[in-house]
Amino acid sequence: LAEVALRIYVKRHRETFLGHYKTADAELGWKLLPGYRSENVTINEQGFRGGTTSAQKTSLRIVMVGNSCVFGTTVGDSETIPALLEENLRNKGIAVEVMNAGVPGYSVDHVRKQFDRDIKKLNPDILLIYAGWNDYFSYYPGDLQYSRPENHWFNRALEHSYVLKAAAKFAFQT
After folding, report:
1. Which residues contact 64 (CB under 8 A, 6 or more apart)?
2. What's this model's pTM, rounded to 2 decimal places?
3. What is the spatial distance between Cα 45 and Cα 52, in angstroms, rounded to a whole number?
4. How far is 50 from 68, CA to CA, in rounded Å?
5. CA gap 111, 44 in Å, rounded
6. In terms of DSSP bridges, do strands 22-25 and 29-32 run parallel, antiparallel, or are they unpaired?
7. Cα distances (angstroms) measured from residue 106 to each of 8, 10, 67, 143, 167
8. Phi, psi for 3 (deg, rounded to 5)
9. CA-CA distance, 21 to 35, in Å (whole number)?
10. For residue 37, which of 21, 17, 53, 14 has the smallest C-alpha distance?
11. What are the tens digits of pLDDT across the range 141-167?
């Protein structure tokens, strides 16, 4: 019964759970969809969550990379860790720009490749890394695809059971 109820709920709130803000990427497997906008999620034209970032630095530039915790899968743009950090620092009189380069599902290997390809050219003054959770569940941490084989029982259960997805979100949501 819980599975049926959650399937109905998720169908109505599909974007929150399934993330229509991702697109395929030949090197990383997936990335954020540049220009995506919804009620709660904005992906700028550079492919980062939040508002547009200028190419020229005009203040201290902090880039935060990582997984869904950095991205803020369950919260709005202004409630993500990078957005709250930027607000806090600005309230203290610090001219700062904090960019949210988090991507749900990324492992440490994804973050390293993302840094080399996309982040380094932004010339951040500070790089904050919050990653590792996805590596914990990975059997093959060097593989940039979802690391568990598709036919692994745990992967199948997570893929098909909304009860397990909801339990995981509840258990690990901060």
Report:
1. 70, 81, 82, 85, 98, 99, 100, 101, 102, 127, 128, 129, 130
2. 0.70
3. 7
4. 14
5. 19
6. antiparallel
7. 28, 23, 5, 11, 21
8. -60, -45
9. 9
10. 21
11. 444 444 444 555 655 665 666 676 666
